[in-house]
Amino acid sequence: MTDGDRLLLCSDGLHDMVDDASIARILSEHKPPRDAAQSLLDEALARGGRDNVTVIVARYEIPAGPQREW
What we know:
The chain has helices at about 10-15, 20-30, 35-45; strands at about 5-10, 55-60. The chain is α+β, with helices and mostly antiparallel strands. Helix 2 runs antiparallel to helix 3.
């Protein structure tokens, strides 16, 4: 993984209702993980939501190292 990558964990309630292209589009339109997860959930429900929908979006960030004073 590289800095800024995101990870999507979801149940079949999402991926059975929302196609991969739509998932990718929503993830690219909503940078904050919370906003992306909510939009994915909303989309699955708007498309019928026939099953329970679980969505987790996490963003990988490389923490800054300790500051050195020379």
